[in-house]
Design goal:
15 helices, 12 strands, alpha+beta
């Protein structure tokens, strides 16, 4: 049985969702003027998350710093992100998709895959049912989507990225040479800037060039796995299933762009503690632990660096993660160069039930770890019952930080 996959993608999601809310309130439609969702002028937080079509004409790009966007278009209407609204709108359009499809996989907050295979009796005309879905989302929720249709997830996603907004496109095998092969290599799903530059250096500029290339040449340039992956995708080959259940996270991370640059370890400590606390609590909620901790930084001139360490035993204890994160930060950063971003990532996830003990753990360290674990569980329970903002580790920062600094001094002395 041939597969039929839909990819539903909200047009300029964050901006569309904010615009739909404002239209409902009788305010002007942000989609008709140069506008964007991102940080504000004063706090310089973050980057452009979404932009209107009029803003695109000024050269404004998703992902660029807000300051750069404002230089291109000083009259840009800039609105702050509202993630509570985004979550509500995301649930709304996915709920409509679930009315029509037996299997729905939410790919991100603003896109999902629908497996429509085997629905010929209910929906013999797939273009018609796609139109029904698209129009119901527009008419009931107030924002538009593109829908791509293909025999696999790759082709459906590529099709949904064709001309926008509020349109339906198909990309079946017979249409690949005409609709996909003339596109630049950068538009092939999963091809990033570095891969595109490497392809172009070898005279490969269009997706069709990849598809018609000797796969052994691609393997020699990119390695076995990536080379064959590029060739398969360029030829529209993708066997991945539409999964109704989300995959287990491969890692947990959190980062923050600071309102002002920090230039000392003392300023970094409470930020790192907050990041460790939020990331570790999410991990504990899923009942897992991590073997690897990584700290990342971004300087004021946008230079990104990271430094990680593999642990002998997995952990979910906030104080342990914080202690190692600060150690990694000291090894990564001189404590003087201005930083505008800090991040903490936990990876190599351990999903086992038993907590592993190190052969080198003393009785005292085992008792201390158990106390720390009980403290974390207590904090988690309080937050679960009364809200995430009920208790913060700000009061603990001083004691944990003081203890950590003392240990660092002892390490240097020894």
């Amino acid at each position: 049985m041939s597969r039929v996959i839909f990819h539903v993608d909200v047009n300029s999601a964050f901006l569309s969702w904010e615009a739909a809310r404002r239209v409902k309130e009788g305010l002007p439609d942000l989609r008709l003027v140069p506008s964007a969702v991102g940080g504000d002028r004063e706090a310089r937080r973050g980057v452009i998350l979404a932009k209107s079509i009029p803003a695109k004409k000024f050269g404004i790009k998703t992902g660029e710093p807000v300051a750069a966007a404002l230089r291109k278009c000083p009259s840009l209407v800039l609105v702050k992100p509202d993630f509570r609204l985004y979550t509500q709108c995301s649930r709304g359009f996915v709920a409509i998709c679930r009315k029509y499809a037996p299997v729905v996989e939410q790919f991100s907050i603003d896109e999902c895959f629908l497996d429509m295979s085997g629905t010929d009796i209910m929906y013999p005309d797939k273009l018609h049912v796609a139109m029904l879905i698209k129009n119901e989302i527009r008419d009931t929720l107030g924002f538009t989507v593109n829908i791509g249709i293909g025999e696999n997830k790759l082709c459906a996603k590529m099709a949904s990225d064709f001309t926008k907004p509020d349109l339906i496109h198909t990309l079946f095998p017979s249409e690949i040479p005409e609709k996909m092969w003339n596109l630049p290599v950068r538009e092939l799903f999963s091809v990033g800037a570095a891969t595109a530059e490497s392809l172009e250096r070898h005279g490969i500029y269009k997706i069709g060039n990849i598809a018609q290339c000797d796969v052994n040449l691609l393997v020699s340039i990119f390695g076995e796995k990536q080379g064959r992956h590029l060739w398969r995708y360029a030829n529209g080959i993708d066997d991945s299933p539409v999964n109704s259940e989300p995959e287990a996270p491969k890692g947990y991370s959190n980062s923050t762009t600071l309102e002002r640059d920090i230039t000392s370890y003392a300023e970094a400590e409470p930020v790192i503690l907050a990041l460790c606390d939020s990331t570790a609590s999410r991990m504990r909620a899923d009942g897992v632990r991590a073997y690897c901790i990584t700290v990342s930084t971004r300087t004021a001139d946008f230079c990104d660096r990271s430094h990680g360490k593999k642990l002998d035993a997995s952990t979910d204890i906030t104080s342990e993660i914080y202690k190692l994160s600060m150690k990694l930060l000291r090894e990564l950063w001189d404590g003087k160069t201005p930083l505008r971003l800090l991040g903490v990532a936990l990876s190599e996830i351990d999903r086992g039930d038993a907590v592993q003990l190190s052969l080198f753990d003393s009785e005292e360290s085992i008792i201390r770890r158990e106390k720390d674990r009980k403290l974390d569980r207590t904090v988690d329970e309080i937050r679960k019952k009364f809200g995430s903002g009920t208790i913060r580790l700000g009061g603990v920062t001083h004691e944990v930080g003081k203890k950590h600094r003392a240990e660092m001094e002892n390490d240097r002395d020894n």
